[in-house]
Design brief:
Layout lengths: L1 H41 L25 H32 L6 H16 L2 H12 L3 H28 L2 H9 L3 H9 L4 H24 L11 H8 L7 H32 L40 E14 L2 E14 L3 E5 L6 H9 L7 E3 L2 E4 L9 H10 L1 E4 L13 H5 L1 H7 L3 H14 L5 H5 L8 H12 L6 E5 L7 H18 L2 E6 L2 H7 L2 E6 L2 E7 H6 L4 H8 L40 H5 L5 E3 L2 E3 L24
Parallel strand pairs: 3-8, 3-9, 6-7, 7-8
Antiparallel strand pairs: 1-2, 1-4, 1-5, 9-10, 10-12, 11-12
């Protein structure tokens, strides 16, 4: 206990210790001041008016003979209470104004930003004077004036902090679930920005105290017979040369109180920074196309199945035709996904591979309805379990995407809300879509954790995400996806951040779940060997376009597209010559805004021709696989010593 306390004392430092001591003195004056000195502060003694300091009157007396020390100590309560009320009003209004726009659409946010920029541009002091005049002279009007005047700046801070959280992975997962805007804001956004807001509020109290004293000083704040430090300063300032102690004492009290709250705020800032674990810091969801170093979300969502799927739901979990994703660019639209056509049968395991920036993750995000603004998704056909999300009303679309689609992203840590325990997060899907009571949802969550082989499920549900290991968090994300009965599981590089042993366990677990639930699995990865160990079929993407769609058996016999061949050759295996450098693909993938007129792989292809440079090859069936190439390679005989790929299997 002593070590723990000394560690915090060291972090707070001398400034924090002095601030804490000053706060205790202020609280003592606010609570006990009117009780101890209230009678002397109100006692009139005209014969002793305007006396200097003495043993009887430490700071002298005012024009009516009242003891100035007693009035300063008694005035502490009203000064501090009004400052706290004004801060609470301004911060509460600012939090609501700043957090709510983060759950609105693009147009709603733009309208809010325009209004808030106008409010911030208006001088806060002038706004406070206007409000004080309208609200009426007095303590109440001063509190309303300063609370309203401070709200825009507090709202801007809240909006900035909330924007950094609103794109996080756990917020995206909640959006898929169809969580209401109020629940999204109160449960997922505000708890993760509470610490900096509390620190700012502490600092704000000191500023409010000074501002309120200023309004009282000019006659717009506290009115007689009530008094605060600003009122006392105004009444006695004209005696600055004859009785400086009586004139300066209220001002000194204002300055000391302001310094105390500033010291507390600075110490709280240092303490929060020192204590905030890296696991609990919010991360941003990058736009698309994403930088290769940006973290990707990882979330599992599931719930109740919407009624009324079409007849194709029995055969296909996913049907996509001519899917495209376009973002506006400085010189025109940027096509990041181009004409993707993909069918996934129920119970099938399909892998999507490609280098970073190939469009594989953005394709998955488009299917899940998570493409960030201002991206635009178009498709000739898009069906999940036989239903087209684009034809449904917003609540039904959220129910479809949140109940029949489970999404598992790359980074298991950033996908959970760091401010909530695991149990509250795992039960959200069943509470939102199934309407289960919390106790029943908790039992279901424990069953799902047990299903994915998480030890001690009850204990894990009482822990925070950063208390779990990486592999355990990944299993918990899969359990979240199984809280309902998803038809489609989208796994976006679910093994990238894990060690090799845990990678194998997760791959086996996905295969077993596929066998048990008959849910289709769409696995995205840059590692073709991991994909082929799980999937029945492999889809290869390059520059936002499918270049080959091939089953694993045919892949073992040799892919047709040169890019797929290069991907396979770049994967080391047991038969690789250790004396030779690892195989690489020369050049780099083209940027979406720099796509060539013909085949996008042409600048890197060893078999390129003039036709490749001038015309884009169509995706057509050749030798039992779909391939987009003018010069496809013939199949080769399988080499039994080649361990680059293995046959797909669930376990």
């Amino acid at each position: 206990m002593t070590t723990h306390a000394s560690r915090y004392a060291f972090r707070i430092g001398p400034t924090g210790m002095m601030g804490a001591l000053g706060l205790l003195l202020l609280l003592f004056a606010a609570v006990a001041g009117p009780v101890i000195w209230g009678a002397d502060a109100s006692h009139l003694d005209v014969a002793a008016a305007q006396q200097g300091p003495s043993a009887q009157h430490l700071l002298g007396t005012d024009s009516l003979g009242r003891d100035m020390f007693a009035r300063v100590m008694s005035g502490a309560r009203l000064s501090l209470v009004l400052a706290v009320l004004a801060t609470a009003l301004g911060s509460a209004a600012g939090v609501l104004l700043g957090a709510f726009p983060t759950v609105l659409g693009r147009r709603g946010r733009q309208a809010w930003e325009s209004a808030m920029n106008t409010a911030i541009a208006f001088p806060a002091l002038l706004l406070a004077l206007c409000v004080a005049t309208v609200a009426g002279v007095g303590a109440k009007g001063a509190v309303w004036a300063l609370g309203i005047a401070s709200a825009p700046n507090f709202a801007r801070l809240t909006y900035t902090l909330a924007s950094s959280v609103s794109g996080s992975d756990y917020v995206l997962a909640a959006r898929i679930l169809g969580v209401s805007r109020s629940r999204l804001m109160l449960r997922h956004v505000l708890p993760n920005i509470a610490e900096p807001l509390i620190v700012t509020t502490t600092l704000q109290v000191g500023g409010m105290l000074i501002a309120l004293s200023g309004l009282s000083f000019i006659g717009l704040g506290v009115q007689p017979p009530s008094y605060d430090w600003g009122r006392l300063l105004s009444e006695n300032l004209n005696r600055i040369y004859t009785a400086p102690a009586a004139a300066l004492a209220p001002g000194v009290a204002i300055v000391i109180a302001g310094l105390v709250f500033n010291a507390l705020g600075e110490s709280a800032t240092a303490l929060v920074r020192a204590d905030a674990p890296a696991a609990a810091r919010p991360r941003r969801f990058g736009g698309a196309p994403r930088p290769t170093a940006a973290p990707r979300p990882q979330a599992g969502t599931a719930g109740q199945k919407p009624a009324g799927p079409t007849a194709d739901a029995g055969a296909y979990a996913l049907r996509v035709h001519d899917l495209s994703v376009v973002f506006p660019g400085p010189v025109g639209p940027v096509h990041t996904v181009r004409g993707v056509t993909l069918d996934v049968r129920r119970g099938e395991r399909v892998g999507i591979v490609g280098e970073s920036g190939s469009g594989k993750t953005l394709t998955a995000m488009a299917i899940a309805g998570l493409v960030p603004e201002p991206g635009r998704v178009t498709a000739g056909r898009m069906e999940i379990a036989g239903r087209d999300p684009g034809t449904l009303r917003a609540p039904e679309r959220r129910r479809l995407l949140g109940s029949m689609t489970a999404v598992i992203f790359q980074d298991p840590l950033s996908s959970f809300n760091p401010a909530l325990k695991m149990g509250r997060q795992l039960t959200e899907a069943s509470e939102v879509h199934l309407g289960l009571p919390h106790a029943q949802a908790m039992r279901l969550a424990q069953d799902r954790l047990h299903q994915v082989r998480v030890p001690s499920p009850a204990l894990r549900m009482a822990q925070y995400p950063h208390e779990l290991s990486g592999g355990m968090r990944q299993r918990a994300m899969i359990a979240m996806g199984l809280m309902g009965e998803p038809e489609l599981i989208i796994a976006d590089e679910p093994t990238t951040a894990l060690d090799v042993t845990v990678q194998e366990q997760i791959v086996r677990l996905l295969g077993q779940i596929n066998q048990d639930t008959k849910a289709a699995v769409l696995m995205i990865s840059h590692d073709i060997s991991v994909v082929t160990s799980l999937c029945h079929r492999v889809v290869v993407m390059y520059a936002g376009h499918i270049v080959e769609d091939i089953d694993v058996a045919s892949l073992l016999a040799g892919p047709a597209h040169p890019y797929t061949q290069a991907l396979l050759a770049s994967v080391p295996h047991m038969g690789s010559d250790r004396n030779q450098p690892l195989a690489t693909i020369p050049g780099r993938p083209p940027q979406p805004r720099e796509l060539p007129g013909g085949c996008a792989f042409a600048p890197r292809c060893p078999f390129v021709s003039d036709t490749c440079r001038s015309r884009q090859p169509p995706l057509q069936v050749r030798d039992g696989r779909r391939v987009a190439c003018w010069h496809p390679r013939p199949p080769r005989a399988a080499d039994p010593t080649d361990t680059t790929t293995t046959t797909a299997g669930p376990a």
